[in-house]
Structure formats: structure tokens, C-alpha cells
Specification:
globular, 15 helices, 350 residues, 11 strands, D-Maltodextrin-Binding Protein, domain 2
Length: 350
């Protein structure tokens, strides 16, 4: 009896050992691995700030605790990174990334032949910000000739000289919105490769202003928007209400000249709900995809992450990968004429 009991216990122990050895294949896969965090811009901008912060803290929430390293891949307003993540990056869970919030809409419109991805087929991790405590700003030097919205809309008045990056990104689409939907006098200087170059161009006086996320300004140039700073906020975009810190800066919706233009603005503002989108390539093994999605959301509850985000002054109002997919599906099901109405603002920048 004792021998049979011992044998049974030995067998049970063996089975438990075998089971524990294969209990977490995700941890086994990631142990000792390195994940690439592809950032669609060079260093110094808002997307880079979010990407680096996520890379710093997310690994400890992934089974196996892999190391995450940042790989900046600027080009075409982050379209280069989006195409890379979709087509080229390994589809085993060792590559993730962040690109411009407008990329899903650009993918749905299918008007740019350089777009090589279907936004609904990405493995969506989520978005670090839903613009709960953020805004997209029209930021202008205080020494510019244009001092107010009234000046900007004055017939025959001087234009605001704005800089932008590539077609399909916020910095390129927004000047067209300002000009065509809000009646602003705008002169656009294109060709800047990334946010850091635009900040530098403003600092040097090459341009008078730019459109930019508040979180990016807080992270990189916080002194600019202090009461005694060198820049002023003329207008906010991506919000239904004025931002509390800039009560004199109206929203784009307020400034719309008619209901039709306001409807177009509201459609253009939808992507801001997924303001800092993170993805993995399509076709990941399901258990690794879920591990990455769970780790992404868990990171936003990490005290160290939250503390650093507060220091940087960036918005943390995350949405899940499922919520991002629902938002993209919602946009994809809109009537073709509504999607057509935003095409020129997304694909050409005016």
C-alpha cells in the first residue's frame, strides 16, 4: 500500500512538474527576449515621449519580462513606421509600435497609394490617451503679427506662417482645416520631418506657429505656454469644450461657420479618441497578442509609469485595443459622402 501510494505521489509530482513547465508558454517565449518599440517619429516629440515611457515600464507586465528598446523610424508623418509594422516587422510578438493618430483614417480612405495597411487588421494594443486631459493646439509666437482669432480671420490681413510635416498627419491636415473650414489666413511651409524640427523652427522664428498636441508641448517646451511664455494658444481642436487652462482659446467647433463644416470637424476629431495609438503587427499568436494587450493596459496603472507621466505633464486616459477597433469600425461604416468630405484634409493637407 505504501509503495503504491508513494508511486502515486511520485507520478502526481511528475505530472505537476511537467504541467508547470508548460504552464505559461508566453513567459517561456519572452524570457530573455527583446521587443522593438517602433516610434514613427524621431526623438523629441509627443509620440516619442509616449513610446519611450511605455518601453520603459511595459516589459515588467509581460510574462517573461522581456526588455523593450525604442527604434525611431521617422518618415512620411509616421506612414513609414505604419507600413513597416504591418508588412515587414516580425509577427511573433517581438515588435510593437506607435504612429500618428490619423493613420487609421488614412488607411480607411484608401486614397494614398503609399498606404500598405488595413487598419482593422493590426493587433491593436490600445491608446495611452483618449484626450481626456489633452488638446490639439494652434500654437503661435506672441511676436507674430496675428494676435487673435479675429486677426487670423480678417480679410486681407497677414497670414499665420505655419510649419507642417507630411500629408495625412495632424500637422499637415490642420492648416487646411484652419483655412477651408474656419476661414483663417494661413501660409504653410511644408517639409519638416518631425515634431522636433518644428519646435526648433518655431524657436528660431522660421515659422510663426504650428498645430501640436498639448502633451507634446508640456513634455518638451513647458515654459512656452506659461503666462509669461513666448507662445500663445489661439484655438483648440479635438475637444467638444474649451480646455480649462486656456479659457480664451475657442474650440474648432465653436468657430465653424455652418453646420456642415461643424460636422466635418467632428468627424476629423474622432481619431483623437485614440490619440496615442499602439499596435503590434497583424497575425500574432493569440496568446501573445492577449499578453501584450493586457500588459499595455496594466502599464497605465503602474505607479512608476503614472509618476513619470505626471512629471512629463502628459495625458494618461487609456482605451483598450477592443475600444480602438470599435472606433475604427464606426468610422469605416460612415456614409461614403461623409468620409469623402474629410478626404482632402487627411490625404493632402490642402
Amino acid at each position: 500500500m505504501k509503495k503504491s501510494m508513494l508511486a502515486a505521489l511520485t507520478l502526481a509530482a511528475g505530472l505537476l512538474t511537467a504541467a508547470s513547465g508548460r504552464a505559461d508558454p508566453v513567459a517561456d517565449f519572452y524570457k530573455g527576449k527583446t521587443i522593438s518599440m517602433v516610434v514613427g517619429y524621431s526623438t523629441g516629440g509627443g509620440y516619442d515621449t509616449y513610446g519611450r515611457l511605455m518601453a520603459l515600464h511595459m516589459g515588467k507586465h509581460i510574462p517573461g519580462n522581456p526588455t523593450i528598446i525604442v527604434q525611431n523610424m521617422p518618415g512620411a508623418g509616421s506612414l513609414k513606421a505604419a507600413n513597416y509594422l504591418y508588412d515587414v516587422a516580425p509577427k511573433d510578438g517581438t515588435a510593437i509600435g506607435i504612429f500618428a493618430r490619423n493613420m487609421p483614417l488614412l488607411g480607411l480612405l484608401k486614397t494614398d497609394q503609399n498606404v500598405q495597411f488595413d487598419p482593422l487588421k493590426f493587433t491593436w494594443l490600445g491608446s495611452s490617451s483618449s484626450f481626456g486631459n489633452d488638446a490639439y493646439l494652434l500654437l503661435v509666437r506672441k511676436d507674430a503679427k496675428v494676435k487673435s482669432v479675429e486677426d487670423a480671420r480678417k480679410s486681407g490681413g497677414p497670414p499665420i506662417i505655419l510649419g507642417s510635416t507630411a500629408a495625412g498627419t495632424s500637422s499637415d491636415a490642420m492648416p487646411a482645416v484652419l483655412k477651408d473650414l474656419l476661414g483663417f489666413n494661413v501660409q504653410l511651409i511644408t517639409g519638416y520631418t518631425d515634431s522636433a524640427q518644428l519646435f526648433l523652427a518655431m524657436e528660431r522664428g522660421e515659422i510663426e506657429g504650428r498645430t501640436v498636441g498639448l502633451s507634446a508641448v508640456r513634455a518638451n517646451k513647458p515654459d512656452w505656454i506659461k503666462p509669461d511664455g513666448s507662445m500663445q494658444v489661439l484655438m483648440v481642436f479635438g475637444r467638444a469644450t474649451r480646455y480649462p487652462d486656456f479659457p480664451n482659446a475657442p474650440t474648432a467647433r465653436e468657430l465653424a461657420r455652418n453646420d456642415q463644416d461643424r460636422a466635418v470637424i467632428e468627424l476629423l476629431e474622432l481619431p483623437y479618441t485614440l490619440s496615442r495609438p499602439f499596435v503590434a503587427p497583424p497575425g500574432l499568436p493569440p496568446e501573445r497578442a492577449k499578453a501584450l494587450q493586457d500588459a499595455f493596459m496594466a502599464t497605465h496603472k503602474d505607479p512608476d509609469y503614472i509618476k513619470e507621466a505626471e512629471r512629463l505633464g502628459i495625458d494618461v486616459s487609456p482605451v483598450t485595443g477592443d475600444e480602438v477597433v470599435k472606433m475604427i469600425e464606426r468610422i469605416s461604416k460612415m456614409p461614403p459622402d461623409q468620409l469623402k468630405s474629410v478626404e482632402k484634409f487627411i490625404s493632402s493637407g490642402g
